[in-house]
Design goal:
The protein is of the alpha/beta class. The strands form six sheets. Strands 5-15-12-4-11-7-8 form a seven-stranded mixed sheet, sandwiched between helices. It has a two-stranded parallel sheet with strand order 1-2. The protein has a two-stranded antiparallel sheet with strand order 3-17. The chain starts with 6 loop residues before the first strand and ends in a 19-residue tail after the last strand.
């Protein structure tokens, strides 16, 4: 029996696709819209009619032979994927989120491809896409199509304009005060973000980093030191300050660090809410107000300045990449090494770096800076970030599918990752302290961004900074100095602790590390070096 493909007119198909987009995959947009307009019911109705009319007009306008199906299928697949992450995690699909997705690893992506997501994708993407692929579209001649399409598009545009004009003051003020609403319009906002990302990436390929502080040199203190000076920078991942007991959290998530003579800066703000933004920004001499992805690529960073000053610089990677920061620096990637003692599918617990650190320290013969880029508290598979020994809070969520866990279980799993980080930092400190007779050492730990754990319906991270909650921007910042370092520079932990309540941010990292390594450079700003006030003999 011969299969007869069903046929449908191009305008009819456009209306079905528009209805699918408006009614099925825009739940978050409509919920945020209703919340934004509040009691302004007439404005809400007018805005809803206007947006729906514009979407219908847009769907009709692309009914061009040979491109209609690919455009509709792309739109449906995009909308289905975006709707899942917006509904489940409160994610906003902006340019930075597209960049995170583009730079993700296979293991990280695998944690998000849960059975629930795959079922959602099957229902909301695959099945409607198959229906569009199977049907035969009846296209009119060009002249007739133009006439029929305009007969729909023009009234839709007029309807949208009329609705806007009728309630313009209420609509304009509501959208101005709730800019996040339009960012959830699906699939328009994700597609626009993807196009912007592609344009930026194309431009970025031609960017060459301009030299920064080529004349940087070591100061007089470090020149006279009789032993190597070493700074370890632990670039944390997804740790939020609210869950550090060092800062007053009711749970003891820092049982090891509280035993060490450390400084915890309580009021530290991140540069971004995602690794792809925060890591390059942290190591840039640009502050958050001036930083952009393009500007960051266009000049060298902290690691380059340290190298220009004559010190050894190295980056150890155990996350989703250095984000271009270490492109001119010696780099060791533990994910690539995939040591089976610590790693599963090229995703490793941070202990792999701790166990490699001792031999590295024993080999140090000159001034050196080492960056350890953690996997830390990276979600949603929190349970894979800690060992049974570090599993202090139970019951904990043992899956990457949050829908299968309670909020308490998710919080328990996340807090266990903080316990794991606490243990890692304590071990690094102990390794440095054991070698205090041979090297003068310092440690800085600073997380790249925080994490939402269900507050305001949000999970994970990556919200646009302007709208991001404090849980995603308030990060832990820890410092430790060895006795030999304190003796050399006259910098005491007690003095640093007296400034622990000062406002700090990622802006401080560049200048603080230069200060710790006694590097004299044109872009060094002592006002942003948290150790400057406590240095007996400032550089």
């Amino acid at each position: 029996m011969k299969f007869v493909r069903p046929s449908v007119g191009s305008a009819t198909l456009a209306l079905f696709v528009a209805a699918w987009i408006i009614l099925v995959v825009n739940k978050v947009f409509w919920l945020r819209t209703i919340e934004a307009f509040g009691e302004h019911r007439l404005a809400l109705i007018a805005f809803s009619i206007g947006i729906s009319a514009l979407l219908i007009a847009l769907c009709i306008s692309v009914t061009v032979k040979y491109v209609t199906k690919p455009i509709y299928i792309l739109a449906i697949i995009t909308a289905a994927s975006a709707s899942w992450f917006m509904e489940k995690f409160g994610t906003i699909i902006d340019t930075d989120m597209i960049r995170n997705a583009a730079e993700t690893t296979k293991a990280e992506a695998g944690h998000l491809m849960t059975p629930a997501f795959l079922l959602h994708f099957l229902i909301y993407a695959i099945l409607p896409s198959l229906l569009i692929a199977v049907v035969r579209i009846r296209h009119r001649t060009f002249g007739a199509k133009l006439k029929w399409n305009l007969a729909v598009i023009v009234p839709m545009l007029l309807l949208a304009a009329t609705m806007t004009l009728l309630q313009y003051p209420a609509i304009a003020s509501t959208m101005r005060n709730n800019r996040l609403v339009i960012k959830t319009l699906n699939p328009i906002s994700p597609i626009i973000s993807a196009v912007k990302f592609a344009i930026h990436e194309d431009r970025n390929r031609t960017i060459v980093a301009a030299p920064l502080d080529l004349d940087a040199r070591q100061g007089t203190i470090i020149e006279k030191a009789r032993k190597p000076v070493v700074t370890i920078i632990v670039a944390g991942e997804t740790a939020r300050a609210q869950d550090f007991s060092l800062g007053g959290y009711e749970r003891n998530t820092n049982p090891e660090l509280e035993k060490r003579d450390i400084v915890f800066y309580r009021n530290t703000a991140s540069c971004g809410t995602a690794t792809a933004v925060s890591i390059p920004c942290m190591f840039s001499q640009l502050d958050r107000a001036d930083y952009s992805h393009d500007k960051g690529l266009a000049q060298e960073n902290l690691l380059d300045v340290l190298a220009h000053a004559g010190g050894s610089v190295e980056w150890w990677e155990n996350n989703t990449g250095d984000k271009g920061v270490a492109s001119r620096t010696r780099l060791r990637n533990f994910s690539t090494e995939n040591d089976p003692r610590y790693c599963v599918d090229k995703e490793c617990r941070d202990q792999v770096m701790v166990d490699a650190l001792g031999p590295w320290l024993d080999s140090v013969s000159g001034n050196a800076t080492l960056v350890l880029h953690q996997l830390g508290s990276h979600g949603p598979a929190y349970y894979q970030r800690y060992t049974e020994q570090e599993r202090l809070f139970r019951p904990d969520c043992r899956t990457a599918e949050f829908a299968d866990c309670t909020e308490a279980e998710i919080r328990n799993a996340y807090d266990n990752t903080i316990v794991a980080t606490d243990r890692m930092l304590a071990q690094v400190i102990d390794l440095l302290a054991e070698r205090s007779d041979r090297i003068a050492s310092a440690l800085i730990y600073m997380s790249d961004h925080g994490e939402s754990l269900g507050e305001k319906g949000l999970y994970l991270h990556g919200m646009p900074y302007l709208f991001a909650p404090e849980e995603q921007t308030h990060v832990p910042f820890v410092m430790w100095l060895s006795k030999s370092y304190s003796n050399l520079f006259g910098t005491t932990t007690e003095c640093l602790q007296s400034h622990a309540a000062d406002d700090t941010s990622h802006d401080n990292l560049f200048h603080t590390v230069l200060g710790l390594m006694d590097v004299r450079a044109a872009h060094y700003d002592p006002s942003l070096d948290v150790t400057a006030k406590c240095r007996a003999t400032p550089s």
